[in-house]
Structure formats: C-alpha cells, structure tokens
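User: Sorry, what's this?
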Amino acid sequence: MHFEKSKKILEALKNADTILINIHRNPDLDSVGSALAFKYILAQLGKKVTIIGPHPVEPAFTFLPGANTIKTVDFHTFDFKPYDLFLILDSASSQIVTSDPKLPLPSLPLLVIDHHKGNNIEADIKLVKEDASASAEIIYYLLQDWKMKITKDLATILFSAICHDTVFFKYTENDSETFPIISDLIKFGADKNAVLFHIYNNLDFEFVKQVALVLSKMKQEDGFIWTALNYEEYEKMGRPVGLREYVSDHFIQSVKGA
C-alpha cells in the first residue's frame, strides 16, 4: 500500500451517492485531469458525479474524455444540498477552490487530495503528498492501492495531467517516482502524441500574438523577471485564460540568471 489512508478514502467514496468534484481557479491540466480521472473511477462504482469550477476550462483541454461535462459555476449561488461529498483536488486553500478569499467552503463532508506545500484546508479526510509532481501521481498510486484497472482513456488523462504540471518533465519534484509512473501509463495506452499535439502544437494564432505582447513588456531587475499588462490591454484581449501561466512556465522561468 502506498498510503495508509487509501482504504479510508475508498470507503468514503463508496458511501457517498452523489459526489461533487472541483477544478480550481484558472484550471491547469492537473486540476482538470485529476477531476476527470476521479469521475471516470467513480462512474465504475456507480456514483453520480458533477465537476465544477469558478473559471472555464481552456479549449485545448477539451480533447480529454468528459471535459465537456465540466460546469463553470458561481460558488456564491451554487446549490450544494444535493451532494453527499465534496472531493477537493489539487487545491491548497479555499480561495483556490472558489476564487473568492472571503467565501468559505460548503458545509459538506470534505475529502482533500493534493500535492501542494502548505495546504491549509480543513477536511474530514486529507491526503497531501508534497513530493509528488502532480496530483495525478497521487491518484495513480491510489488506483494501485485499490487494485483498479487503468484503461487507455484513464492512462491518457493521468499522463496529460502529469505532463502539463511538470511542463513536459521540465519541473519535477521526484524523478525516481514520476518517470516510472509515466512509463506505466504509456504501457497502459496513454496517447502521448495526442497530448503533445493538443497542448503544445495546437496554439491559437491570436494567443501566440498575446504571448508576444506580454513578452515584449518583460523587464529584469536584479535577477527578478516580471511583466505586466494594463487592464485596458487585458480587456481588449478578451481576458485570455492561461496566458500568465504559459508565459511564466515556458519563458520567464527559462531566462538565464532568473
């Protein structure tokens, strides 16, 4: 067994009939992939599952099975009453979940699974593995503990989540764990080429121009590199999702001496 809490987590999932899963604000592919992986798993257990988030999923992520079922909601008005359990993934604080620092989490049984340092969410069950490169790695280990089969679709979902959170293995927390997981997922049928195409070789032309504009404003001060748009520029762009993260992950962190 990888985790002492594996059995307790599975029991909590089996005892709930209607389960709510989050994707966090400005969702990345680890958030989306982890949620979709659990929806896939819970469907095998006959559970009713809804995935919600405060911001929409990037169009590039919709190639994953089930991505079109994710709902963008206002956490202030969403009706939590029909649900037995709230599964919170890849989120270290309530603000990351709801996108509102003043809004508390709903009064539902909470199950937290995460890999971020400093997770401060109080939950009925909480599993945090800080040396995991992605929440999807934790889910892979849970599947092993539960002796559940990993299908091709599930392997692709988990593979894409790990790839995106590590910027295709550029930033990993623990190579000795990440790469064996990736090897296993490929053996299970993960479609590496589909992930590469949709995430890295399928950028919208206007998005690339937006990246260029942000990069043109980049400044360096004593090794600290930053860039900013004024609000009017951001509005004119149509408030692009994922632009900040893309520029940071692919360019700013790669500058020599940064």
